[in-house]
Specification:
Length: 126
Amino acid sequence: MDTRGYQQYKQQSINSMTPGELLMLLYDELVKRSTLAGLALDKQDWPLFEASLDRCVDIVNYLDDTLDRQYPISRDLSRMYDYFTYEMERIKAGRNKKELERLRPMLADMRDAFRAADKNSGEKRA
């Protein structure tokens, strides 16, 4: 099956997204992967568990790398991202379900906060 058309469509969709939509896509993927890590941990599917957390770390590192450092809040966000990365590495090393369950709502709260901020800024632009 030729998937080039789908890949081009996917790339075009991403290229046409606003920065807020891209941020939401990343946060949605972060929450999804952390949930997948929890499910994999329950099944003791260690390769999937580790791959899911590795992807979470990659996303958080990307979010940190793309912060606009001219704003004071960027420093606070960077510290939060450092904390998330540290915790995910601890969870991965210890295969700790309790800590993962504690971290996941924090990731979802961050996503929801950015979603609300994007919605508010969209309303102000309109």
